[in-house]
Amino acid sequence: MKKIFLLLLYSSFLFAQETNLDTLLNKIEKKTDLSEKTKLENGGISTIYTRDDITRMQARNLNDILKSTYPFGYNENRYGLSDPYSIGTNHPNMSSSIRIFIDNQEITSGMYGSGIILYGDMDINFVDHIEIYSGNPTYEYSTEPTFILIKLYSKDAKRDEGTKLSFGIGNYSDTHFYGYNSQELENNWSYFSYVSQVNDKRQKHTSDATELSRDKRGIHIFSSFHNDNNRFLIDAIKQKRDSFINESLDATPTSGTLDNELLHIGYDGNSNNFRYLLSYDYFHTESDLSDDVTPNPSINYPFASLSAESSSHIFSSELKYDYLTKNNKLVVGLKYRYKYYGYDKLKKNALVIPNLEKKGQSVSTLFIENQYSLKHNSIFTLGLSYAQVKNEKSIQDDNLLMYRVGHTYTTNEWVIKSIYSHMELTLDPYLVGSDGVYITPGKKDITKQDTIMENIVYEKENNKYELTLSYLSSKNQLMPNLSSGLLENSAKDIDIYSTIFIWTNYYNDVDKLYMTIGYNQVNNTPIIDAFKQSTATLRNLNTYQKYDFFNELLISKDNIDHKLYYDYSLGVIYHATEDLTLSLKGTNIFDTAKTSQYSRIDPITFQAKAPLNISSIDQKVVFTIEYLF
Amino acid sequence: MLRFFLLLTLISSLLFAKDNYEQKLYENILPKVFHKNSVHIFITDDETKKVLNNSTILKIVQECNDADIVIGNSFNQESANCKKKPSFALDYRAYKHSQSAIGAFYWRKGRPQIAFSKKSFKKYKLTIPQSLQKYVQ
Fold first, then answer.
1. What's the rounded Cα separation, in Å, for the pair A509 and A532?
2. Has residue B21 got a pLDDT over 90?
């Protein structure tokens, strides 16, 4: 297999293409990168996936992208939901500082803090390109504290007028269907409408002979209607999932389901120097668990059955003003978000929890960001954000003060970015008042994170080299208590050292080789003094005649089990005609991708058992046929 | 402000330096259509102006009168002189609705496409080069 991989890699170098109009059109298609227009130049350290990257990588779900993205990768929690920062505890979301935007509008959840919980593995066939910013990147977009900003830019009629239908089938009899239609209308308005239906059967795993399933069935509808200055978005998701381990103490549930509904309706626009946004998000979750355990009557635990239904409504608004002078760009903004959320039903074993009350959380934010051009090749950035977070029926009210200072220096071949940021985070709504369930009793202190990042890019001829060094110190970080698993403020500061070196080689007009080597170290974690992880990526995208090839190898090793993990993926696209495409993709072909640990506790003795090690990346093969009308 | 945007543009271009294939495309087509080594063009679209600004084969002129061809979409807003000239549209809709568009470069179905109108070529007494015949609609 290794030889085949090397042969495929070398084949890229062997074939040069002639230059005629068709070739030029093909090159324009592959090299056109709309992120050149949308990219936030001073928005922290960025990773861009162009439309051509996404197409040739056959990235049909966001996790196909996230799994190789600096600095966090991809991970799923006990419920089988996307949660890159999960450490295997029963918390539904540990990754609320990763925020998902479609165009300029955030898709969010009132209970769980961020849309990553559903969007992390969402189909992204409506997306043109993806920009991912890390390190508290900007206050312009996010209403709430954001360490990672993921911006999905939707396709539109200017480039995608027409209709596309796609059908895919995988080796687990999983099926995926999607289609879109897009058209330019009168007066510069246009629409893009997309629908997908998935029956995503996934690789099965066992825990003490119990089969664990993360299958997912659902429908996703996305629609945008816009002109140059106004955009309306609707995004709706309805899905039924098998809930993997759920809250089963020993990770052997007899059955578990998790049904989700999400609706986002939003409008954003601009006029003169003003930008404004209004949006509404609805998130509804219903989960059921059955487990073959006998609850201890005195503590009503562990759960032999658990049923929960929760919902949230979120109203967001913002107003921003841009003031431009010769050497300066100033942005000031006001944002207000109100979340109304809570459990509608909750039954733990035979006990129906009475008097469930909905709660409210308001987040009011004022921010100012300034970019000053010191010289012709030097920009100084300063940002300040102040947010008031008020929780109804709770003592957990917090004021969050955040600031960032950055400098970008550029020459013909170099771009050097230096960023310092201070970020403050408070509890996600589902944690507020969850004393004894998800957190230890008592008011929690604000988590304070200070980050220093240095990003150096050198580009010459066909090569681009990039080095990123970062240091993050987190005070009062919420970490699980070792005996109870409940979150509490860590007594020690958590220090994270991270570095990544990236080399991109454009070895001909449209093909590229992408390599990374990275190292992360997290000091003062609850379990070990220092978690150390080395990562590497080797990705090759190349085209030969009517074929697009994709090869990717992700390597990972850490100091917990000292095992070398590698996730090798291979894809081929055959362009049968201009409108008909057949593609085949294998992911995690050798079933050797990085695994996540899920704790198991004996339900009788309450002694810890050996944890489960299961990868969030399935070993799978998918065949897809696409047709454009 | 100009300095500020120049710097942002410079950073963009450094990070995403690429060959100007759009320029090459126009340079490949227009000299063949007019049987000239150098073609004078009047452009109504700012983005295309930037794309073709450095061409040595295509010369951007400030008056329609001096142009061999007009490149852009909103032909109706241009002067009477522009309306007399053959045009090259940047949008499929503009191409279909314009009486003067001999051809177009536009995006549809997620890919760039070119098309030429036999009728408009005749109208301006131009001949379609053999190498462009396959794009005639």
1. 38
2. no
CA distances from A104 to A44, A195, A232 (A): 17, 20, 10
Residue type, B42: F
Q: How far is CA A299 from the centre of its chain?
A: 37
| Angstroms from A36 CA to nearest CA on chain B | 6
A67 CB near a chain B CB, below 8 Å? no
For residue A119, give every residue at least 6 positions away whose Cβ sits within 8 Å of its Cβ, in sequence order, or none: A62, A82, A100, A107
> What pTM, to 2 d.p., does this model score?
0.90
What is the CB neighbour count within 10 angstroms for residue A428?
25
Quick one: which of A49, A56, A31 has its CA closest to A573? A56
* pLDDT in the model for residue B75: 58
Helix (H) or strand (E) holding A35: helix A35-38
B22 touches chain A (CB under 8 A): yes
Interface contacts A/B by beta carbons within 8 Å:
105
A467-493: per-residue pLDDT in tens? 999 999 999 999 988 888 899 999 999
Hey, where are the domains in chain B?
19-135
Strands A253-271 and A274-291: antiparallel
pLDDT band, residue A264 (cuts 50/70/90)? very high
- The ipTM estimated for the assembled molecules is 0.84
Domain count, chain A: 1
User: Using a CB cutoff of 8 Å and minimum separation of 24, what contacts does A179-187 make?
Assistant: A180/A125, A180/A126, A180/A155, A182/A155, A182/A156, A182/A157, A183/A157, A184/A157, A184/A158, A184/B91, A184/B93, A187/A227
Which amino acid, B104?
A: A
Residue A193 · residue A157 · CB < 8 Å: no
Three-state SS at B32: helix
Q: Which domain holds residue A54?
A: 2-628
